[in-house]
């Protein structure tokens, strides 16, 4: 198991290094090579497959056409002399994404084959259970596509793109953001020997984008030292008020869409554990922090205080010896705190549904 874990980490690190290398590439050569290699692999795979020659010819033509379009895009669109750096970054991200376009075409053909070109017979390898599973997945995929059209709207993408330059993956940006009055409130909460885990569905552009990949409604998690959420903190983008990193959060900041809601749970925390956690948060506040935006994809942190929300909550619970499930902190999702509560350490407190409050 350890060897397998190390192997996965090594693969993730290589993928991340390739991603960074492509982002900082100053010439189109590496992109051209990757596009060409992908086309060669798929062409060979198609030619040795058992498809008839019409299918082979069709897919070979598609892959060659995609390769030509990829080469035109990378040479004539991305690497031009009049690109603003943010526009160049977005264009390079698109150039990386379209590496997978021919593989997506191959996947669509696989789905088509399952749905339309099977034969029900005694020895058929495709069962009705498999088809039922496929239809369920197809429906889920369609729903995801419909949601994606909304999430990936021009306004949302523009908002996310404008926020990217505020982040750093290598250095601490946020320092001494938490005030002394915040820590006084934390100290006042020590008589309550509980910590409060807050799951939220905020409706922010970033949260909605994350939901496309996690398939979860709740995509942000916070920590509070009091039940009234006066001392709520987490790692976030700073709401264009503070820099990305460890910040205090207000309840009204969770309300970014009509059906936004939060779920509040508590976990027992002896006073001394709570004191240690407050001390650790003060240390992070003094040292500095940044939001682990890239880590959402790579699942890697370069520095200890560069984290995303669920990574921070799990790490701080582990520091306070209060973690109740085993995981790697960079792989924890917000909903894991409830879904992985096998020993029922959490107790539900209340829900706030902002739609009901508006009504």
Q: Structural class, judged by helices and strands? A: alpha+beta
User: Radius of gyration from the CA trace?
Assistant: 24 Å
**If classified by CATH, what would the architecture of the largest domain be?**
Alpha-Beta Complex
DSSP helix count? 14
Query: Segments where pLDDT lies below 50 for 5+ residues?
Result: 117-126
The percent of residues in helical segments reads 40-55%
Query: What is the N-to-C succession of helices and strands?
Result: HHHHHHHHEHEEEEHEHEHHEH
Whole-number total of structural domains: 2
Number of strands: 8
Question: Would you kindly provide a written description of the structure presented here, covering whatever features stand out?
Answer:
There is one protein chain. The protein has helices at residues 2-24, 29-47, 53-78, 85-97, 101-116, 128-151, 154-163, 180-188, 205-214, 271-287, 295-298, 309-319, 336-339, 354-358; strands spanning 194-201, 220-224, 233-236, 245-248, 261-268, 290-291, 306-307, 346-353. The chain has 2 domains: 2-117, no CATH class; 180-358, endopeptidase fold (from Nostoc punctiforme) (Alpha-Beta Complex). Helix 2 (29-47) runs antiparallel to helix 3 (53-78). Residues 117-126 have low confidence and may be disordered. The protein has 14 helices and 8 strands. The strands form 3 sheets. It has a 4-stranded antiparallel β-sheet. Strands 3-4 form a two-stranded antiparallel sheet. It has a two-stranded parallel sheet with strand order 6-7. Helix 11 links the parallel strand 6 (290-291) and strand 7 (306-307). With 359 residues, the protein is α+β, with helices and mostly antiparallel strands. 53% of the residues lie in helices and 11% in strands. The chain crosses the membrane at residues 7-24, 55-73, 85-105. Keywords: Membrane, Transmembrane, Transmembrane helix.
């Amino acid at each position: 198991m350890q060897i397998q874990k190390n192997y996965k980490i090594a693969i993730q690190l290589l993928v991340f290094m390739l991603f960074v290398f492509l982002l900082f590439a100053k010439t189109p050569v590496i992109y051209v090579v990757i596009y060409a290699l992908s086309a060669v692999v798929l062409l060979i795979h198609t030619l040795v497959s058992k498809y008839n020659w019409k299918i082979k010819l069709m897919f070979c033509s598609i892959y060659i056409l995609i390769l030509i379009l990829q080469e035109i895009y990378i040479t004539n669109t991305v690497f031009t002399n009049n690109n603003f750096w943010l526009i160049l970054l977005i264009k390079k991200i698109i150039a990386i994404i379209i590496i997978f376009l021919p593989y997506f075409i191959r996947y669509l053909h696989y789905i088509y084959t399952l749905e339309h070109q099977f034969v029900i017979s005694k020895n058929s390898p495709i069962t009705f259970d498999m088809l039922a599973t496929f239809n369920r997945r197809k429906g889920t995929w369609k729903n995801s596509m419909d949601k994606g059209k909304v999430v990936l709207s021009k306004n949302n993408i523009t908002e996310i793109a404008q926020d990217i330059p505020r982040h750093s993956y290598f250095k601490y940006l946020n320092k001494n953001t938490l005030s002394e009055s915040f820590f006084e409130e934390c100290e006042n909460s020590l008589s309550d020997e509980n910590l409060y885990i807050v799951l939220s569905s905020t409706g922010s552009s970033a949260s909605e984008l994350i939901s496309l990949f996690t398939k979860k409604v709740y995509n942000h998690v916070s920590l509070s030292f009091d039940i009234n959420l006066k001392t709520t903190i987490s790692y976030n983008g700073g709401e264009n008020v503070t820099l990305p990193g460890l910040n205090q959060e207000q309840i009204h900041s969770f309300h970014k869409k009509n059906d936004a809601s939060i779920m509040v749970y508590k976990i027992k925390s002896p006073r001394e554990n709570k004191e240690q956690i407050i001390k650790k948060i003060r240390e992070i506040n003094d040292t500095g922090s940044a939001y682990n935006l890239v880590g959402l994809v790579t699942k890697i942190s370069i520095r200890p205080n560069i984290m995303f929300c669920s990574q921070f909550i799990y790490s701080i619970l582990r520091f306070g010896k209060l973690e109740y499930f085993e995981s790697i902190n960079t792989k924890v999702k917000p909903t894991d705190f409830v879904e992985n509560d096998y020993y029922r350490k959490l107790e539900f407190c209340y829900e706030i549904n902002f739609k009901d409050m508006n009504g």
